[in-house]
Request: fold
Amino acid sequence: MKIEIFKMERMQSLWENVVDYNLSESGVHPLNLKELLSPEEIEELKEIRIGYTQTNGTPALREKIARLYSNLDPEQIMVTAGSSEANFLLLWSLLEPGDEIIFELPNYMQMWGLSRCFGARVKPLWLKPELNWQPDLEELKKLITRNTKLIILTNPNNPTGAILHQKVREEIINLAEKAGAWLLVDEVYRGAERNGQETPSFWGSYDRLLVVAGLSKAYGLPGLRLGWLVGPAELVRKVWTYHDYTTISISALTDHLATKVLEPLRRQKILGRTRNILNNNLPILEDWLQSFDGLFNYIPPQAGAILFTHYNLKVNSTELIEKILKEKSVLLVPGDHFELDQHLRLGYGSDQGYLKSALARLGEFLLQIKI
Ligand SMILES: Cc1ncc(COP(=O)(O)O)c(C=O)c1O
Reply:
């Protein structure tokens, strides 16, 4: 079993804590405990026993997660160390060598690399800029066969920030149903919509559905490492046996904090903060992009603190970001990391002063560029 390099994560691991400006992040500026909890609640933390916790998530936490969906029994939830562990466990428990799967691109490439590692044959389903980053359903009809075991989507999408149209969703489910394929939807950006209308979960629309989510993006809490998966009870029980071999359980502190975060009022406040950051920061980034007179063209993101832009320069995206990194100590994600060259992903969820300074640095680079 050979694993290929997860290019974006490797680059971030190497550089994100070293550079002057990190615009490779896809979440909003993280919260701290003082912003999250009252002084009394912070006091309570001192008394928590840091033992093992219930390995599929405490009933209190799963109860809170269940309320985010309609008709979901807490037994159909497995709490994991980030949504990345949820994705890993699902693929590990579902895929066999030779399985055929369809994977939406551009996308967060964890499940692309893992599926290939597990021996699956991965067919890309491209989101098209000319369709406002929706897939071409005629292409999907050609890709899907009786042998398709699984279709993987990220909605809202990373890196484009696009949300699938209702009609597109319905047709994907139709086609999946005809083929008898599983549908796995990573919904970790749900709740980070700029217009404040939470994207409806795919949950409940199909019986072979698996949904993944977590607190890393819309909630600004990536360091909690809290994710979850939901699916049919039998499959979730099967996934539990795989979970016993990975992290066993999340930390007791994370379970406690996540249960607080998902209290309805607190959750609304946190998502409101995220929305404010997105709506205050995006105009700064757009003004900056537009000041380069046609160098960039992009479709504004609907969700997530990320903007994916095409650039009109005859230079490969990895070469470009490496030059920017070396000369200006600013980290961006190249389109190459999503199998789509001539593009860049810029994260705009940071503190405003930081974002403005980072863009000023990038601007210096672009004004003097000779490629
Ligand atoms: C679509 C998607 N899924 C999963 C992850 C991993 O997130 P987590 O911190 O929840 O493991 C990311 C991170 O960028 C992502 O973009």
Notes: The chain has two domains: 7-32+266-365, 50-263.
